[in-house]
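User: Teach me something about this protein's shape.
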Amino acid sequence: MTSTAGLPKPSASAVTRAAVVTHGKPDQIGSGLARLQAVAQEHGVELLFPPEEAEKHAVEPSGDLEGAELAVVLGGDGTMLRALTRFLGTGIPVVGVNFGRVGFLSSMGKRDLEAGLGRVFAGEYDVVELPTLEVEYPGGTARAVNDVVVASASLGRMVELDLAVGGEVLGSQPCDGIICSTPSGSTAYNLSNGGPVLMWGLEAIALTYVAAHSLHARPLVIPPGADVIVWNRTADVEAGVLVDGNQRAALGKAERAVVRIGAERSLLATLPEATFVRRYRQSFAS
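Assistant: First, the predicted structure itself:
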């Protein structure tokens, strides 16, 4: 069976209700919210505000976000990540207007807000399904949209990590940590450590060491169905398990984390012309 993850799916109808997610610092978006409200009013779209957004902007909170057909993000890639995580499993796609720096996950820049969101509200957008990760660690499990990182919990101290893929041991590596990344996360921490960029449409995990003490440690791309197991083999240094940048657990000696491609997909809404290649060229290749 051919996977359709990462392939765009066109919207069928105009938007009538949209949830709003904004940058953690309201000043960062300036008049962005007022501009969004004006476009929504022009197109007859009801804006829904989660409690934390309502408090941030002193508006009335909305009771039922499940009625939203779309989530509109005003912010950077961090805000997009937060929104994709929040709406994971709800069937609500997320579209971004970039008020940050890189804005790789955003469909349009802040100068194009009115024209871009006008098209989106009219139903002129695609939805890209992107793989997520599931991670098991001592005491719990979690889902990641971008990446799972196992890294030294002590600044300046290396850890020795054992790695196994698909039930086969690859060996031990002294390093600062290892990144397990989704395609959407491959242009984040993974990219900054020299890892491979995975185009949307791939069902895969990118494995990239952080500051490996070796001339031979190289990134790997792992297919679906192959669990990645990471053991901490360091006697006196714990390894933290970070999920999308947030620490969830610490691995003592001989404890492990297991990472695999998740069952759910994050839903990224995008203008038809804002393809992966165009975003990559504008963000990284210029």
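Now, about its shape. The chain is about 15% helix and 40% strand. The mean pLDDT is 93. If you'd like, I can walk through any region in more detail.
User: That's plenty for now, thanks!
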